[in-house]
Design a protein that fits this description.
The protein has 357 residues and is of the alpha/beta class. Helices cover 55% and strands 12% of the residues. It is elongated.
């Protein structure tokens, strides 16, 4: 029977996905601590803007650069994506001169792009993952993704960016039109004037200036996107689905498995978090009041129902089995509490999905 550590300890990248409110970030951090105990250099990178990673570790702040979760554990690092810092570094890397870098980062279109454009978080997430991978500082990088659809957007972002950079309209905007297309360019001036009358001439000018300044560095962006896409599809990358036994969480997990398959990736492991704890059928106190006995019976039935529902759910998705953690009495808000979760994970054995009797 394979335990959770055996299933993940040879992977260079572990992507944790799952619906919201199931303890995904805490699980990702605990998996990281578990791997660090084996001697691997581990970095947990959260791209979820909810900032749960810092609170789970009891840290005041976690930023774009990896920091030690504790001075006592020299191989356990954590980081939280800062899209603007990552985007600025990317522009600096691929600009041919300081003048080009300055022209891009000072352009109003760029400043709006890094703070407001939908998808920027996902694009910069895969860029940051690649930077950390390329630094060769870590044996394993654990990516804590945002909940649900946003996680799929992150995994799909490299191929979408590469496709956008290959788009003929984008290429047309980067370069002056060739001589034979000059009549068309002349004809579009009227359209540009109409757009300027709606959004303002400054917006149009800033946009055109941005694309002109961007010319020449898109190849670096494209290469990066394609290499990250290959990394996410390689055998060195594993996908861990974290869910709770609640019906809506399992349903959301099913959708994520299907969406992941739709972009060519497979869930390799499933962790069901926050299972109702196991209780004895009879109270230890023979004089326990009737209400306590009724509550105990309800919890025993709930645990049995969760087990049957999970096994049936996994069969529908053709998954091999699952690992599970029981619900904790309190939230994880410091490293000592996280260590208890890692202890429990260390003893997680694979439970096969089976037809309910």
């Amino acid at each position: 029977m394979t335990d959770l550590l055996d299933a993940i300890d040879s992977k260079e990248t572990l992507v944790c996905i799952g619906p919201g409110g199931v303890g995904k970030t805490t699980s990702a951090a605990a998996v990281g601590l578990l791997l660090a105990r084996t001697g691997r250099n581990v970095c947990v990178l959260t791209i979820d803007p909810a900032r749960r990673l810092a609170s789970a570790l009891g840290l005041d702040r976690v930023g774009n650069e990896p920091v030690l979760a504790s001075e006592d554990i020299p191989n356990y690092w954590v980081a939280m994506l800062d899209p603007k810092q990552t985007f600025d570094a990317m522009i600096a890397r691929y600009s041919s001169s300081e003048a080009q870098e300055k022209e891009i980062v000072e352009n109003p279109v760029y400043r709006n792009l890094v703070t407001r454009l939908s998808g920027t978080q996902e694009y910069m997430a895969f860029e940051r993952l690649w930077e950390l991978r390329e630094s060769q500082r870590f044996d394993t990088i654990i990516v804590d993704t945002p909940p649900a659809q946003a996680a799929i957007d992150f995994l799909h972002a490299p191929s979408r960016l590469a496709g956008f950079l290959d788009n003929r309209v984008f290429k047309f905007m980067l370069k002056p039109p060739p001589l034979y297309l000059r009549p068309i360019a002349m004809a579009t001036r009227g359209l540009v004037k109409q757009i300027a009358s709606v959004v303002g001439a400054d917006v149009v000018n800033d946009t055109m200036s941005f694309f002109q300044a961007f010319s020449g560095i898109e190849e670096g962006f494209r290469e990066r996107a394609l290499r990250t896409s290959e990394l996410l599809a390689s055998e060195a990358t594993s996908y861990l689905l974290v869910s709770s036994p609640a019906p809506d969480s399992l349903a959301a997990g099913s959708r994520m498995v299907e969406l992941l398959q739709g972009i060519g990736h497979e869930v390799n492991s499933v962790l069901i978090n926050r299972m109702t704890p196991t209780y004895a059928s009879d109270p230890s106190d023979p004089n326990a009041p009737a209400q306590a006995r009724a509550d105990l019976e309800r919890l025993v039935r709930m645990r049995a129902h969760e087990g049957l529902a999970i096994k049936s759910w996994g069969l529908d998705l053709a998954l091999g089995g699952f690992y599970f953690l029981e619900d904790l009495a309190s939230d994880v808000s410091n490293l000592a509490a996280l260590a208890e979760v890692a202890d429990a994970m260390q003893h997680c054995a694979l439970v096969p999905f089976a037809v309910p009797e």
